[in-house]
Specification:
heterodimer; A: 387 residues; mainly alpha; 2 domains; 16 helices; 4 strands; 4% strand; elongated; B: 244 residues; alpha/beta; Rossmann fold; six-stranded mixed sheet; four-stranded antiparallel sheet; 10 strands; globular
């Protein structure tokens, strides 16, 4: 045991003196909260304030009343655009064409065609376009009602059904996408943080010509692998837990209630997530070591591991979109973690069965990889690839 | 004592080592001499227990390496051909790591570290990180990590490559001291002067086989030459790789 302690001490000394690895870990911790905060701020801003939009009107003079109605909804003629936004709105080129016969046809109660020309695939435009549509439809409905009233008819006769939509989602549940993002960042930071450290201690050690000498020492390869994975996983777990704390703090700071989202992260949730991060950190660490050991150089290992880096995003997403999946798929590492975290953040109670299954599966896979890696370090193929 | 007995090793169709037998006794310095690609490194790797031989066996103090590699390695110190070290560790930490792998802990560990640092006269560099160390300083650290657990047997793989005169002399003195203390020293080299000056016994390896063994003088007599280098060329039948 004391021998093992010595091995681990050496790994920790190396890993925590590695500025490059520390920087990578720090980057992972800081990046998540910043991105989430930025996205949320933008969304809150979009959802709570209506900004002026600028549209090219053709034939505005034919329908002054419609134009002023649009104006009340902050849809303004393009020649009023301030110079700093001019470029943007000219590029977006939304065009509303009002026919010459507008007033005439309106007077005769003939249907009028107003043309709204815009690029509907432009994702930043959807809210603006919806607002224009709604305003014009509203105006049209208003005129229609007036016509009916003037003929002595109750306008409600033209609206036999009034659909009343009631959203039963709680404010916590509405936060689904945000929470999925938080869960993803907690897992991603775990992988980014341990990546540099794991490459350095495996492929890096081989590149420095230290590996062969270590394999010649009177010590089992299981101990060598374990000492490395303990260190690398600690790196990942620390980064991941710090990310969680930073995320929680960021969430608490944001005025999320403005968009109807409520997030409650109580200390117990944090403890459960921290406990769950540990097996995941073990799995991430051993997976990274496993693949990095197959590489001869630091650079080669980096290209292998960058592929592993996308797993925390890919696996939960893949599981989410697979229809009619068997139940156990919800418990595979990463996907299970993501689902559990999301539920917890939504304020639901912990599903103990899912929690146990996910973590047990994670540990089983990690132990299997540990044994496999230890065995591969005893193989001649690895030794021959040393020089 | 180190012994290899009728060792053969193939990699596919290629025979790297063929029926090699030799013995390195305690209290002697034994040299393995051979051109590049003669099978020296393969032979040593079998002795370390990294590679499995196709036939024959290797022994460290009568323990079969293939049977119980970890037990056998306990009385072995290795000085590899490349001085790989972690640049973020100090020399002392680097040596400590190897001492711990040999099971040294607590007070014994500290004493072993102090002793080897003192023996190799490296107290000035002991607590510096090894980043930027010269070849000579790296040699000292490497030797210290091979000797810290006082192994009965020491294997050196081309130890003087890239060393200046002072470092080479220091290494030579260390080896002679160890020899006097009764340790078994095996070292591979292709530097003739060194082998001639140091070794009690020389094993000449070429194309995976032992082509001659004996004291440097015996080898010269055998080949009818005055210089070991000439004897070596005469014995292996070519001068390929000798000057490397």
């Amino acid at each position: 045991m004391s021998m093992f302690k010595g091995l681990v001490t050496k790994e920790f000394r190396e890993a925590f003196r590695d500025k490059r690895a520390l920087m990578a870990a720090g980057f992972g911790i800081i990046m998540g909260p910043i991105i989430v905060a930025a996205v949320m701020m933008f969304q809150i801003d979009e959802a709570t304030t209506v900004k002026n939009s600028y549209v090219t009107f053709v034939g505005a003079e034919h329908a002054p009343q419609l134009i002023s109605t649009l104006r009340t909804q902050k849809i303004l003629p393009i020649d009023e655009v301030p110079s700093n936004e001019a470029d943007k709105w000219h590029k977006r080129s939304i065009k509303i064409t009002i026919p010459e016969t507008f007033a005439q046809d309106m007077a005769k109660a003939k249907p009028v065609d107003i043309i709204l020309l815009a690029d509907y695939s432009h994702k930043n435009l959807s809210t603006v376009l919806r607002r224009i549509e709604r305003t014009i439809e509203g105006y049209s409905g208003q005129v229609g009602s007036m016509r009916l009233l003037m003929r002595g008819i109750d306008p409600r006769i033209a609206q036999p059904i009034n659909l009343n939509v009631q959203n039963s989602a709680t404010p916590e549940a509405k936060s689904g996408i945000v929470m999925g993002m938080v869960a993803m960042f907690i897992m991603t930071s775990l992988f980014t943080a341990s990546m540099t450290a794991s490459i350095d201690t495996s492929a890096g050690e081989r590149e420095r010509h230290s590996l062969e000498l270590i394999l010649c020492q009177p010590i089992s390869t299981v101990k060598v692998v374990l000492s490395k994975v303990v260190c690398v996983s600690t790196y990942g777990a620390i980064a991941s837990i710090l990310t969680m704390l930073a995320m929680t703090f960021t969430m608490a700071m944001l005025p999320l209630e403005k968009i109807g989202i409520s997030i409650t992260v109580d200390p117990l949730t944090m403890v459960i997530i921290a406990v769950m991060v540990l097996p995941l950190a073990y799995l991430a660490g051993i997976a990274q070591l496993f693949f990095a050991y197959q590489a001869k150089t630091f650079k080669e290992a980096q290209s292998y591991l960058s592929m592993i880096l996308i797993l925390p995003m890919l696996v939960p997403m893949a599981i989410m979109i697979v229809p009619h999946k068997p139940e156990w798929l919800n418990n595979i590492p990463l996907a299970g973690h993501s689902i559990i975290m999301e539920e917890l953040f939504k304020g639901k109670a912990l599903d103990l069965v899912a929690f146990a299954a996910t973590n047990a599966l994670t540990i089983v896979v990690a132990v299997a990889m540990t044994m496999l890696l230890a065995k591969s370090l005893r193989s001649e193929k690895v030794v021959l690839a040393l020089s | 004592m180190l012994k290899v007995d009728n060792l053969s090793k193939n990699f596919g169709d290629f025979t790297a080592v063929e029926s090699i037998s030799f013995e390195a006794k305690d209290g002697e310095i034994t040299g393995i001499l051979g051109p590049n690609g003669a099978g020296k490194t393969t032979c040593l790797r079998i002795l370390y227990g990294l590679l499995k031989s196709n036939s024959g066996a290797a022994f460290i103090d009568d323990i079969d390496v293939a049977q119980s590699p970890i037990e056998a390695r306990k009385s072995l110190g290795i000085f590899p051909d490349q001085f790989g070290m972690s640049e973020r560790l100090t020399a002392r930490e680097q040596i400590e790591y190897f001492a711990q792998m040999h099971g040294l802990t607590g007070k014994a560990l500290k004493e072993a570290l102090d002793r080897v640092i003192d023996d190799l006269d490296m107290s000035e560099i002991a607590d510096r990180k090894t980043e930027g160390f010269s070849q000579g300083q790296r040699m000292k650290v490497t030797l210290a990590q091979a000797l810290v657990h006082r192994p009965q047997n020491l294997v050196l793989d081309e130890p003087t490559r890239g060393l200046d005169v002072m470092s080479t002399r220091l290494l030579r003195e260390q080896l002679l001291t160890l020899k006097q203390q009764g340790h078994c020293i095996l070292f591979s080299s292709h530097v003739m002067q060194e082998v001639a000056a140091l070794c009690d016994k020389v094993i000449v390896v070429a194309k995976g086989k032992v082509v001659a063994q004996g004291s440097p003088q015996q080898l010269c007599d055998l080949a009818g030459k005055e210089q070991l280098e000439d004897a070596f060329v005469a014995i292996i039948g070519s001068d390929e790789g000798v000057a490397a």
